[in-house]
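pasting for the record
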Amino acid sequence: MTTFTLTLHPHRFVRPSTGATYVSDGYLVFVPDIVYKIGFPGESAYNAILPGVTSLIAKGFVDEKNVAIQGHSWGGYQTAWIVTRTNLFKAAEAGRAGGNMISCLWRIRLL
């Protein structure tokens, strides 16, 4: 069985062109369905993502030494939160992540 390098996108709205580019370059793309517990967005993402990734590794689909996580905006926040709690990921990219949830909440309420 072929094992793949995994790229993970915690935000469920990944542009099809982005996913297709990774797949055509030989990556497995995992976009988890995260169910959020009110008041615990980072923990909710962690609890959805880690079991999914470890399952893909256990089933032999993913090379455990080549797992990356990438997120932007809300996905960036989740990425930043998750990488502070595990060493599973070889690489991580958190673009425009909201690190201050009070500030983010204020911005959301203004929209």
